[in-house]
Amino acid sequence: MVETLEQTALSMTKKDIKNAKTIGIRGAQEYPVAKDYKKAGNAGLRVYSCDADCDSCHCATY
Amino acid sequence: MENPLVYEELKSPVTAQLETTYKCTNKCNYCYNSWRGRKNLPKTSLSKEDSMILSKKLVEGELFEVVLTGGEPLLRRDIVYPCAEYLSSNNVDVGLNTNLILLNEKDIKKIKDSGISRVFASLSSSEERLYNEITETKAFRKAVRGIETILKNKLPLGINMVVTKTNKHQVYDVGKFLHEEGVKYFSATPASPCAFMPRELELDREEVIHTLDDLLRIQEDFKMIVDVVEPIPRCITDDSEKYEQFFKRDCAAGKLTIAISPGGKVRPCTHVSEEYGDLINEELSVIWNRMKPWRDGKYVPKECHECAEMSVCSFGCREAAKIESGSYSSLEPWARKPLNENRKKVKIASIPEDTELRVIPNLRFRKEKRGYFVFSPRDHSAIYANEELFRVLSSLYQKGKFRLGDLKKGEEGLGLSNIIKYLNVRGLIE
Question: Which of 30-59 (A) contact B at CB < 8 A?
Fold first, then answer.
């Protein structure tokens, strides 16, 4: 049975914030959450996570 | 060369369509069910006992969502409501796909009591004559009464119109009609080639684009949420920016979803006839493993490997490709040619520092090989988070309400701020 987030009580550390990532369902790479989104945005790169532009990507949407 | 479009191997599907019966009140000419029109359909229908066996296996398989469908599921109320109750009480989000013709006030109470979270219905025309012609019924008024009954009782309702040559001129009118009825969500889905539908009913590329234009007008004029519920290849148009919202849907067949026939046979989706196992007598994990070709890149058309938008395209419906060209790995009928440039634009979320935010309530998750799959029953948004991101999400949930402006300055604060913006874009923070 799937669980609900209410059933968790985890706390985050600095290390968690630094290493937080999503995993692309589509393509087996890991996509880091951008650490410097302004720099990435100014450089015209995709911003929030990955080469597939996560706000509309297919890695977990259907 | 390694295929870049191998799907991450999830331990089981995220969602399933459970077909409760082969029977239907309607005989829609566009019906996508792969078994529709087959003369040798099994005569036996799903027993109550087997429906509970299937439901239990879906709970054990840690699926997030099950859609009860058919045929017409309200022909099997004896199965639909007990299954819905069992599934919803085990944290599975349950939807009901129906043509609404049989819906009555008693169903409303049962829908609510059994935990069905939303109803997705079909309406092929707002003209009585055309609706009755397409469905081979005289049931237009019953279908409209069904819509009104659902809305009167404030149940979440989405309406889908399957668009063919027969009703392509009606898309805007149907949207307007539904808006006046009070419907908020409307999808008009160009019928992709499928086994039952005569091929002369299929839309060509121009007609598909015209359908999308009608949807955009409906969105603009009536502020409705508009959508298409099948994958459309991006190369269908030169103006991808205009139609970007309609390219979000991937083909999830065998990657994230399965369909289960009334006999318990498992297929990659409702359109596909190929069966991969018998869920009444086999384990879901065994059947899921047999479906690997659907997620190892085998069915990505070779032409698409040359395309600059390969990483963000659905490639369209694989069953449509097979009907068009005889193979799941061929180009589907609306695809044109590989593109030289990725036209997709970057979007940057902007959240004012003093906006009150929170993690969406009732998020569900399951453990996967490399982290956690997190799913929102509200709008079906989801992410696959590594262990660290999952801890951040859990911790943010416990905070209750928070603001970006309250975060610490420095690298740690910036990192957390970016994660929050990301989770907001992905629909897990509001």
Answer: 30, 33-37, 41, 44-49, 51-59
Give the full edge-to-edge strand order of the sheet including B265-267: B225-227, B185-190, B157-163, B116-122, B93-98, B65-69, B15-19, B257-260, B265-267, B277-278
Q: Which residues of A touch B383 (CB under 8 A)?
A: 22, 59-60
* pLDDT tens digits, one per residue of A14-50: 999 888 887 777 754 455 554 444 444 433 333 333 4
CB B50 within 8 A of CB B58: no
CB–CB contact B374 A5 (8 Å):
yes
Interatomic CA distance for residues B354 and B404, integer angstroms: 7
Sign of the CA dihedral with B42 first, then B43, B48, and B49 last: negative
Q: How far is A57 from chain B (nearest CA, A)?
A: 6
Per residue in B350-382, pLDDT (tens digit) is 788 899 999 999 999 999 998 999 999 988 888
CB atoms within 10 A of CB B116: 24
Backbone angles phi, psi at B311, to 5 degrees: -75, -10
Of B378, B382, B430, B428, the residue nearest B117 (C-alpha): B378
**Minimal Cβ distance to B7: which of A17, A22, A25:** A25
Tokens (6 digits) for B280: 């009444």
Residues B14 and B382 sit within 8 Å (Cβ to Cβ): yes
pLDDT computed for residue A9 by the predictor = 86
Residue B94 CA: distances (Å) to CA of B130, B171, B264, B366: 31, 28, 18, 17
Please state at what angle helix B171-181 crosses helix B205-222, rounded to 10 degrees.
30
Burial (0-12, 13-18, 19+ Cβ within 10 Å), B142: middle
d(CA B344, CA B205): 20
Distance from CA of A40 to the nearest CA of B (A): 10
Counting Cα atoms < 13 Å in the Cβ hemisphere of B57 gives: 24
Query: Hey, are the CB atoms on B412 and A14 less than 8 Å from each other?
Result: yes
CA angle centred on A31, ends A12 and B16, rounded to 5° = 90
Beta strands in B51-114 (DSSP E): 65-69, 93-98
